[in-house]
Each structure stands twice: as structure tokens, then as C-alpha cells.
Amino acid sequence: MTELFRDKVDVSMTVNGEPVEARVPAGQHMIDFLRLELGLTGAHASCEHGVCGACTIRVDGDAVRGCLMLAAQADGAKVWTVEGLTDTSAISDLQDAFVERNALQCGFCTPGMLVAADELLSRGGVPSRAEIREHLSGNYCRCTGYEAIIDAVESVAKGRAVKGTT
Amino acid sequence: MTIPFNNPDRPNSYIGKTVPRPNATKLVQGRGRYVDDIVLPRMLHVAFSRSPVAHAKIGTIDLDEAKAVKGVVRIFTGADLAEVCTPWVAVLAHLKGLKSPPEHPLAVDRACWVGEPVVAVVATTRAAAEDAASLVVVDYEELPAVTNTMTALDKDTPVIHPELGDNLAFRRLHEEGDVDAAFANAHKVVFASFRTARHTGVTLEPRSILVDWNPAEGQMTAYHATQAPHMMQTVFAKHLDIPESRVRVICGDVGGSYGIKVHVYPDEVATAAIAKVLGRPIKFIADRLESFSTDIHARDHEIEAKIAVDADGKILAIDVDDWTGIGPYSVYPRTSAIEGNQVVNLCGGPYDFANYRAQTTVVFQNKTPTCQYRAVGHPIAVAITEGLVDMAAAAIGMDPVEIRRRNMYPDDAYPVTSPAKMKFEGLSHHASMDKLMEMMDYDALRADQAEARKRGKYRGIGIASFIELTNPSPFMYGIGGARISAQDGCTVRMDPDGSVVALSGVTEQGQGTEAMLSQVVAEGVGVLPSQVRVITGDTQVTPYGGGTWASRGAGIGGEAALQAARALRGSILEVAAAMLQADAGQLDIRNGQIVDADSGEERMPLEELGRIVYFRGDTLPKDLPRELVQTRHFITMEYPFAFTNGVQASYLEVDTDTGVVTLLKHWCVEDCGRVINPQLVDEQVRGGIVQGLGGALYEEIHYDEDGQLLNGSMADYLVPMAAEMPDMVVGHVETPTKESELGAKGAGEAGTAGAPAAVMNAINDALRPLGAQMTEMPFTPERILRALGKLQD
Q: Which of B524, B690, B746, B776 has a CA between 20 and 30 Å from the CA of residue B617?
């Protein structure tokens, strides 16, 4: 780590609706900040290249790779992880559908997958299976073969459409 | 009393039904507890300095700069750890001739593959450990690297381990019948070369271990992402000189295994050794480059094969010459000869033919060690067999389904012994094929294919029948001397509130083990699955068992659970009979209630029985046994393995201008015996198929000729993504094994076994009119364009 990365940066953000102030190393990744400093171990570090999506979190409404973002960049941001999305019941229909359809096996990709899926669903409407597959292509799952995940997301999209909610 | 499985309306009928997984909800809420989520007081982190070259003598090691990094606590070299950890040699007595040199947790004197751990740096943070590891300076004196499997045994190829004499790790020749005569007299002989690429598992959770040595108690606790906690207990105890009883391996949530996490890795043993030296918890989490360069690799076979058929398409003989390179060491303790051995065991598997010759040659090379990965050997053997059968069918102008029907063992032929000397208790190739034809509407698909061709589209249908080895007996490892348990145990107890706890030696890796156990125990005792709490993955708590590998969890662990549950039911009923002044045989347990067996009338909730047993035992007859806990262990005795069977089909389109393959649909019919949880089995099959599709189309570890790993990241090693994968139709035929009451065989590897062959045959079916034939996996656009003659440089 270069000396530059050793510099500390003051950040202020909200994480899962709660204010967080911290002094973070300039080189610390957001996923490490969440996991190591805040104890939010739901999102996982896996490829550390921004490829697999296991670290996906929601930052200011967008699904973001926690391994490609520095904690210092989150200054002023509204950050949500699977823990907060669970506590607020924001994605409970999606979580229920994943359990019902067994759209997870080892569960390591699941928190990131849920955030990515919710990003698609939050746009409203009922995406086609191909659109769901395309949207989730940045989130690897090595266990399920994806079909159950597509089924679960599709069923939630249809369910939300019927309820008129997005 | 046996369970009337054929009656779906029987009481407590949970076996055979989809019940929810007890551990799924916590995982969707991000409340899983994987090893990296665990933080212990005074915990330190280890990072490794690894060999950047494939083969080198280790000269001086300069640690000065590394030691100066703030946070570094201690640095260990190979010589340091050799003083506290004995080396291991990965051979098995029944794999005759298999040899391998001693391997240490850190390389001593010589590094033999890119990624081999050489120096371990321990620091207060992972970042500091990594920083310091990058400042370790090792003087590597490069040695010639052996990288080509096919020339590894040539006279002018350097010998990697001179003390072993040559680069041959293992060779086995199996011969049955008169193969040469059969080929000489055959109506048609078809030759082909096949190649399966080097793969790795790419578990999303990297290999992870946290080891805590408590010198005050003389006890080691390893929190380990592993498939075989008891095996690891033995390994740590043996090589770190700790009594086995003083090693506890805890396996909580595991983020994918697929065989990757069932092996002994030098860096993980080093982590345990360092914990013992420092007396502090040490955590090692592999990063992704470490995953690619040090997780076991697999496949990487090159094969020459031929098949002889008569004019009616009857298989007369199959001859297979298989070569594989396994890296510089056989992997401990399962060895790296198994995949080649499986190719010999499995080729020709579905078919009734007389003359069979197969040889596997397993050589050392300077690449990452290979070992058992999901469906060990099966994808290779199925690709060889099904590729040859399709080519033979084409050569004599026969439909690929028809040639299979003419050669598959009749469904009433069992038990039979194959030309490879595999014993089949009961398989259903024809019923499975019939079901597949119905599911996929084969004739309609052929019509669609013909229609597409008129439009200039090249679509293909590929069929692949297969057998799959599950429920292994000690014939797999135990007879070779390895302390790898083929039996498994389950303890089932009833607590005062009438709920049931099941402790099992098989582990949960996401496949649904805990759901399977909960429903088996629920049915066996007579309670709701939600009343069963399942505990796995703790060597100090669960009965001794083998863990989860070779598709044994349901077949072995499930049967042990069923027997333990039935025994507990008997114990409960004995107490109930005494309390109710009734005959135990007239009582039953249903939904957590003691009932009259005939009328179903409720007599007493289990909660009340629990209250009396645990708090008012004084009211029970003095001599009445009141142990509401039972343990049973199960091992298969009559067959070395419980083979399953199945057949897959792929429908795809090849773009002959770009070489891109689009998977349109995939089908699998498989027979894993009794299906305990239909949804979980289907999803195992689907997940397995996609892993096989990855091998067919994308996955390939690349090395250069110096043994340098070229694609060590997820951006460069492609695995299947959602957009490219097809929807999959899964069907079942059920031929329960008679070895157990449960009748379950394994289902976790069937998908991976057959998918690559189905895709290969579909691509060749599509390209046959163009005269192209693909047999080298993965079938990348480049390879397809070369086969079509459109790329020639």
C-alpha cells in the first residue's frame, strides 16, 4: 500500500438509515468498510474485481459493487445493505420468493443478487425472462444454474404488478 | 415397521415432498455466518508469499523489508513450519503404483507450481499481512518446467521429482474381452480424440479457515469452510502432533464447495500450524488470484478413443487411452489418481457390450495440483462414450436415440456387472430415455431443426446417457488406507418441549442437507419438519462421519438419520405405552402427538411425554428405559457404490459466422432412487447442469509453456452467467436402492456428468452437414470457426 493510501479520510454517510461518521483509510474498499468496521457481513467479497457481484450494495438508489468503490467515495451517500433492506421489509417479497423457489443454495451470492434484482424490479413493470437474465448477468451464482433465481424474480415482478406497487 | 413410501397419504409423509429449507431464510437476510464473518479476540491474519514461477530452487529469503511493515507479528518460512508440521504423502494402497513426494505446508527448498506458498506473513490486519507479503524477497533459481502432459514421460523431459524416477504418478490398464479381435472384425470403427480443459470450482466464497489454538486447554478449534470436518480433524491432529480428541473442526455456512473444499491445502495446514505456534487465532481467506492458482484444478484430460459397432449399431468394443496431468503433487488424502481411475471405471457405462480396454496415464507437471471436483471423471467419461456413440450412429446412418436404445442395459437386466467391472444394482436407462423423449418431444424438435436449417440456421440436438457413482463404500478411499469415513452417523433426541434435535455427520454446503435431514427425521419420528432442529458441521458435537462428497449426503447421511429417527420413535412409544397403559404396537406418533395407530385418535402430545420424562421421571416405572436419544450409523455393504443413471439432451443453435453457441433448452431425466425433496433434487440437477455447461462452452484454465497461469481472475476465466443459460426441464425415474430403507442415491453430480457431452453432441449434430466435428472443450467461438475452416491462422 502506498503512503497515499495510508491517508485517512473523514466520511459521513447514512448506512441502512442510520448516520455513520468514520475516519477511513483512503485505500479502504466500501465492502471492507461495511464488513470490518460496521459488522455488516451480509454482502460478501468474492472476486474483488467487480465481476461477480457478491458485494453488491445499494448506494444512492443504484446497485453498486462494494469492491470497486472506496469507502471515502461514500461520503454523503445513502447506503443500503441486505441487513437494512431486511429490517425495513423493503425486499421481503423478493426474499420470500427466493426461499419459496429455492433460488439460493450456498447463499453467498444471494445478498448481492437481491440488491441487483431489486434494482431491476424497482423500475416497475414485468421484465421478460431474458431481461431478468440480462440484468442479473453481473451477479454470478455457481450453485443454482440461475433458473430458480429468474423464476423468483419473475414471480415477484408479477406480484408487484398485480398489487400496483413497484 | 417399514415406511409405505408408495402411499403419499400416509401419516407424516414428508419424505418425497418439497419442504422449506430451515437455513434458507437466514441466508436471504444476510445472516449467514461464513468463516470470514467470524472475528475472535486477538485474531491475526496470514497472507502468503507464493512462487511466481512454475519450478524453482528456493535460494535466500530476505524478510527484512517485510518485517518492517507496521502490524507484522511474525513471518514463517518452509523450514520454520517443517519443525512443527510433518509432511504428507498422498497415495492410496489400492491405487497400485501411485506415487507422490512428501509435501509441506510451505515449500521447502523448491517451489513446484505458480502459487505454491513459500512464506507466511502474520499481521494484525489482512492489509498489513498482504503488504508485507509483497515485500518478501525470495531468490528463485528457475528450473525447467514440465507443462505438457503428453510429453511428460519422454526421455528428454526433466523429471520433476528425481527421487521418484520419472514423471509417472499412476497408470492403470483395464482390459476385458478380446478388444483387438472385436475391432478387427467390426462392421464399422470410429476413432476420435477428445480434450477436456483444466477447470476449477470457482466457489464464490473463497477457501476460508480460522484456527484457534488454546494452549491452556491443549485444544485446537478450526472454523473451516470444508466438506469433511472429521477428515480435517484427523489431518490437523496427525500432522501437528495433537491428540485427535483435542482438535475440533467447526463448519458453519459454506459458500459453495463442489469438491473444492474437501481437500487438504498447504496454506490451510500452515494456518493451523501458525496458530499452534503463536497461540492466537489465525485467519486465512484466499483472495481470488489465490483461488485460481491454488484451489484444486480438475479435468485436463487428453484422450484417444475408438468404438467398434456392427451393422445393427451394436457396440462391439470400446478402447480408451486417457492422459491427464495432475500438477507436482498428488493431493492429500484423496489423491489425484481418482479422476483418471474414474474414466477407466465409467466409459461405456450405460451400455451392454463385451470388449473394453481403457488405460489412464497420470503424470506430474508444474501446474496447480488437480483433484476431485464435482462429478469426478464423469464429464470426461460421458463425453468420450457419448461422443463415440453419436459418431458411430452417424457413420452407419442411425438415429442417435435408436443406437442408444439398442445398446443400453435392459431395465430388467439387473443386477449386472459392466465390462469395467462396475456393479449395477438397478438402473433405468430405457425408462429414462422414454421419459426424455416425451418431455422434449423429440420428433417435433427434429422437425424444428429441419425447418431452421431451411432458414440457414444450424440447430442441433445432443443426447447423453450416463451413469453416476454415488453412496461410496470404503472401497473408494478407506481400503487404500485413508481415514476418510464412508459410514455416517446421526443422533436424534427429543427435548422436553417435544421438539427433536438431529445431529448429523454430513454437512450443509447449500445443497439442502439440513432440509433433507429435517424431513427424514420428521417422518421417522412423527413430528413436523419445523419441529426438527438440525445440527451439522461440528466434530465435537455430531456423530463421526465422512461429510459431504461423492453424492453421499442423502443416501448415507439420510439413511442414518432415518434409522436414528425410527429408533427414537420406538423409545418414545415405549414410554408412551407405559404412561397410557397401552401396547406400544397400537400407538403411533403423528404431527407431534401420540395417537392410536388405528383410529388416529390423539392420546397425548409429545410435550407432555417430555414433561414427564424430564421432570417427573419418578412417576414412570422404575425399570422403564427413558433415554429419548438414539444414534444410528449407516454404511453400504453390498455394493461398492450405488450407481445412478440418467440422460440429458441439449438443443442449441450455432452461429456459423461468429462461432457463438446459443443454448435454446436443456433436459435431464435422472434416477437417483428415492427422491426425498423434489425441489432440492431438481435444483441440484439444474445447478449441476450449468456447471457442466460451463465446462462445455467457457471454462478453461490457461498456462503458457513455462507454466505461468494466464487467466487467474473471474474476468478472464469465464463461468456461466444468467444471460447465456437456458431453462432446464428436469424429470425423474425412481429406482430406490435396496441397500437402505430410504432407498436414496445421490443427485448432486448428475447434471455436471452429462451436460458437456449433450452440448458436444448437439454442436456436432448442428455442424455435421458442414463437415465439422468438435471434440475439444470448451467449444469456444474460435474453436468452432476453426473447425468450420473459417479461421485458419
A: B524
